[in-house]
Amino acid sequence: MKKSLRFGGAALIALLLTFLAACGGGSGGSGDGDRALRVAAAADVSSLDPIKGNAGTDHVMLYPIYDTLISYNEGLEPQPGLAESWEQSSPTELTLKLREGVKFHDGTALDAEAVKFNLEREMAEGSNIAAELVALDSVVVVDPTTVTLKLKHPDSSLLMALADRAGMMVSPTAAQKAGADLGTQPVGAGPWKFVAWKRGSQLKLERFEDYWDKDVERVAAIDFNIVPDPKTRATSLRSGQQDISLEIAPADAKGLESASGVTLSEHDRMWLNQVYLDRTSKELGDPRVRRALSVAIDREAVLKSGYFDRGAVARGALPDDYWAAPPESVEYPYDPDEARQLLREAGAEKLSFEMIANADSATVRVAEILKQQWAEVGVTVEILPREVVQATNDYFNDRKAPALLSAWTGRPDPEATYRLMFTAKGYFNTSHEAVPGIDEAIALTDQGTTQDERLPGLNAIADAVYKDTPFLPLAFASNLVGVRDDVKGFQDTLLGKPKFTGITFD
Amino acid sequence: MKALRVVATSVASAVPTLILATFIVFFLQRLIPGDPAVALAGDYATPERLAEIRADLGLNEPLLQQYLSWLGGALTGDLGQSFRTGQPVADLVFERLPLTLILTGLALLVAVAIGLPAGVLAAQRAESRFDKFLTTAATLGIAIPNFWLGMMLIVVFALQLGWLPGPGGPSLADDPAEAMRGLVMPAVALGAVGAAEIARQVRSAMIENLSADYVRTHRAKGLPSRSIIWKHALKNSSLPFATILGIQVSRLIGSAVVVEAVFGLSGLGSLVVEATNQRDYTVIQAVVFVAAALVLLTNLIVDISYRILDPRIA
């Protein structure tokens, strides 16, 4: 009797465990071709209405619901989307030829009128993306499958903006009925339709049977599970709770590679880790000082210690395997002697400044490496780790420090990246003064419509940026995605925002 | 009648505390640097859009006025709308609350099931080898951070042995049985510190009681040792036990934030972390309101239990 009491507590726990173990029975459901694809994402979608959202990480959850007018391939070149072809008769006129017979999830026809409705909705008050369509003057419905976009001034980045949020078509019927509620009741024309959304926890989608592309492979359903902690995303995948885990941290990559049943997908992407610089600040106002900081950085070492060697060194704002990569002359070779000399010439041998850094462990690690490398050339930097929203606020709005170590998530069009970071009106240019020569170079780019025609202009932009050093590009860290072995057909792109079409279960 | 009066006075004193808590949190969260408009506009920010959002959210109004209109709403059952999504905050909170309640409930069960017998046994054999082992284990239990324990449990029981489901499994609504299995490790990780605390408190209270005169009398008249320990000494040790239990509840609700993150659970903890990152003030405010209400409710229960356990307390 005494004995049984003594072990009462342990027995109770054991009983509970057995009970729970017995309840679980046959989990896993392998071999079931109709089960949902379980995807662990780092952050929830900020809004399911494309014009209300705010984060570059939203797209993985928006693309399945909303097809875009223009699509893109692995290297981010424009491909037919809802528009099966397009024509730019002049730099201020873009005509889209839409697919016939495409329907939204609620049965509404996706025709020229629907496109006009969408673009006008995107330019109206309350839209987060109005700035991407500043050049758009009017939308003309030519016939039910033809629509012409008339521009106020040339803007060759508009086409690829239609592969981003601006191209995500929402059902006009649903938008008019829902008003502000579209963010919780989304209706698009994408390969999967909305089922349920528990904020911050799960988004459930199911296959849209009337999808226009009958040939593409699609799983029966997708469950996006929100798992913010990177370690937990990795262990969740390894223990079989997920089929795909997005945004694997470089620190967890090795563990996944050696684990059984799981494969690590490593893909280049345009997500740029960089230091934003305030080019009109008193500490960093001299271009020689900014160049000195740049050539004092041993980028190979940063890549190795900061990102576990998973990625590529950054020369400019765009990666090397991209069609709009900067010309070869754009490069800041590691040269501490040159850095010291430039600082001497600028009279800034004892340079000291503050740098805000996102407070996540990876960014702080990179900040420490930079601090040490700059110390070698006599520069003192004080690191101010801040949580993301505060960092953004302190740097871009309040201008509390002349530098910010953070990232740029990229845009489908190269010009958009340059414009947002380096022109006078770009929000991500905290000095609000244009980099010398950039406006002319952008105008040159906009004269062309094809990639070949635009490239000289884009090279000129990259060159103007290089000469002024308004930022310190560090590395394009790879997009690391963990995939279970029974998932076939996962594909990533340079944008690092994978779509889930083409995936099947083994 | 007396019990009723106790409840009434306790509730009456709880309301001002609750209001004070919301007041403090309201102003504290506004001290967190960072602008909700910046969080809302994110990658697509422009100065015009930021100004538009601030005006929409009513952030340009004086702070005190914002607080009073929130309080007015809260007292009439309207916790407001999420800055981020426009959804009613009450829906968000009550969607997450069950998971956190079940998790903390299970953790409390773990804490009591391990801590209580361990404390009693240790007291019974004070200064024995078992007692020394237990005291060391309890000290370790208090010192080990619950997130670390959680990660170790995952590595051993989910990844190596495969006995229990790993983090990020199905929700309670989708597959209750599997979800409950998934809560075993989080409950152990969360309850471990509690078990250690309870074991220590129960041990010292029991040692005190076991050396008391009435225990000697019981022994002298030949009452079996089992009855002395579990019936008489334990009952007299129940006041400190009730106190530590009450403290554990508030601690568990707080610690759930970390454990939920490690196990990929979406309860109140992850909601408040997410809301803080997004500066979604109304959501933070509502979670604190609910958590404070839970803690006050626990204190009330502890207060009442004192009077039941010990009739000498008026």
Automatic annotation (TrEMBL), chain A:
SUPFAM superfamilies: Periplasmic binding protein-like II (SSF53850)
GO cellular component terms listed in the entry, alphabetical order: ATP-binding cassette (ABC) transporter complex; periplasmic space
InterPro entries to which the protein is assigned, alphabetical: Peptide/Ni-bd (IPR030678), SBP_5 (IPR039424), SBP_5_dom (IPR000914)
BP term (GO), one: peptide transport
Keywords (A to Z) from UniProt: Signal
Recorded GO MF terms: peptide transmembrane transporter activity
Residues annotated as domain Solute-binding protein family: 77-426
Gene3D superfamilies reported in the protein's UniProt record: Dipeptide-binding Protein, Domain 1, Dipeptide-binding Protein, Domain 3, Periplasmic binding protein-like II
Signal peptide: 1-24
Protein name, as recorded: ABC transporter substrate-binding protein
